[in-house]
Design a protein that fits this description.
This protein is mainly alpha-helical. It has one domain. Helix 1 runs antiparallel to helix 4, helix 1 runs parallel beside helix 5 and helix 15 packs across helix 18. The protein is globular, with a radius of gyration of 21 Å. The C terminus is likely disordered.
Length: 412
């Protein structure tokens, strides 16, 4: 470490990470302000900002007319409500808060790399996360990706500590499940990771009795954290809903006659089924049924759309027009393409370590599979890039220092 302790290197990495994110947050804020705009990606950001205002003002948690009370999970609006409560002009403080959250994500990448492999891998992965143009660029946007990634990383660190033996037993299984549940308070798409992890943990474990208790604890912890939200939803809609009532329209957005792979929710306004008296619960089921009917009637188009969405997900440069132009595309591709290639080398190096690559590469393919069904974009890949950079660091070391393979591999 050239005379510096790992903690000093980590402090430098985190300082760089925050500085880059804070500078970009201020620059983006000034640029948007000069254009008379609040948000770079207005639709989702406006909805989150409105819901944050509801929390800060203690109003009903609902958006649009007719009101949709179970459109979004409350985690990200709750974070945005903090600067709203503290500042008269909360938008720039909100961006700076997200810069701090993004910096915390870099620290969690370090912990994931250190727990699964060793100190050096953790530091390299954190350093790559700190300077990633894509992750820096998205951090101050009023979108849930950065907070979601940070919570997701916390759950992955808990999983890593469980499988590496740092923490054992059903109690830690409850903690792991609870962190998965808390992540779902930001976005519900991580919920399936609970049964996926619990099932894999049980199958790979040597002591099946203890493993069954741990796996059950993970599942229980994830659901238990979400139950209060489900109870709230029952009071708001008359139906117990553990996450949201937006999966149906989202599914139809990706699997309907108008689907292109990109999100285009204009059909929702044109149909206006809630304006005609349909409840939020029935609206959700209505669009889910229409999406299922589309798949039954158009199997070849469904497969074609899956391929289109897969490309949109793995595409190394921006899809959205907001990020158009040669410079963002070049910067992103110059980082993302080597990231994937080094990660592939890393996977090959530790291919026998199921947990080593499962907890780092696994989320990338988990979200890829999910968004080959729903709509797709690099936005949905971003949370998975954080853990993937741990495997990128493994690949970097395997090529640059082949005599220094990850220490943890020997214990796998």
């Amino acid at each position: 470490m050239h005379g510096r302790s790992p903690m000093r290197w980590l402090a430098i990495v985190l300082a760089v990470a925050f500085a880059l994110r804070a500078v970009w947050a201020v620059g983006l804020h000034v640029w948007l302000d000069r254009q008379g705009r609040m948000f770079l990606i207005a639709g989702d950001a406006e909805g989150y900002w409105h819901l944050a205002g509801d929390i800060a003002a203690r109003r009903e948690f609902a958006v649009y007319e007719p009101p949709r009370r179970v459109l979004r999970m409350p985690g990200f609006p709750a974070l945005l409500a903090v600067p709203m409560l503290l500042f008269d002009n909360p938008l720039l403080p909100a961006r700076m808060l997200l810069a701090a959250v993004g910096t915390a994500a870099c620290g969690l990448v370090y912990l994931l790399g250190r727990t699964l492999f060793d100190e050096g891998i953790g530091l390299v992965a954190a350093g790559l996360t700190a300077v990633s143009p894509t992750l820096i660029g998205f951090t101050p946007l009023i979108l849930s990706e950065t907070l979601f990634a940070t919570c997701l990383l916390a759950s992955l660190v808990a999983m890593a500590r469980l499988v590496r033996g740092d923490c054992r037993g059903a109690g830690w299984g409850l903690v792991t499940g609870g962190l998965i549940g808390l992540t779902c308070f930001v976005r519900p798409s991580w919920l399936l990771s609970a049964p996926a992890f619990a099932g894999t943990y049980f199958v790979l474990a040597k002591e099946k009795g203890k493993a069954l208790l741990v796996a059950a604890a993970v599942l229980f912890g994830a659901v238990a954290v979400l139950i209060p939200w489900g109870v709230r939803n029952e009071r708001a809609t008359g139906h117990f809903v553990l996450t949201t009532l937006w999966m149906g329209p989202s599914l139809y957005d990706g699997l309907g006659p108008q689907a292109t792979g990109d999100s285009n929710m204009t059909f929702f306004d044109v149909d206006n089924v809630m304006g005609r008296g349909m409840s939020e619960f029935d609206m959700n089921r209505h669009y889910a049924d229409r999406a299922k009917a589309f798949v039954r009637d158009h199997p070849l188009r469904t497969i074609e759309l899956a391929a289109i969405k897969c490309w949109r997900y793995f595409k190394p440069w921006p899809n959205a027009e907001q990020f158009g132009g040669p410079l963002p595309a070049v910067l992103m591709a110059a980082f993302v393409i080597p990231m994937f290639l080094f990660a592939l080398c890393g996977w090959w190096t530790v291919r026998g370590d199921v947990w080593g690559w499962g907890l780092t590469v696994g989320p990338l393919f988990y979200f890829a599979a999910l968004h080959m069904v729903f709509v797709s974009s690099i936005r949905y890949r971003l949370p998975a890039e954080y853990p993937l950079l741990v495997m990128t660091a493994v690949g970097w070391r395997s090529l640059m220092s082949p005599d220094r393979l990850p220490e943890q591999e020997a214990h796998s």
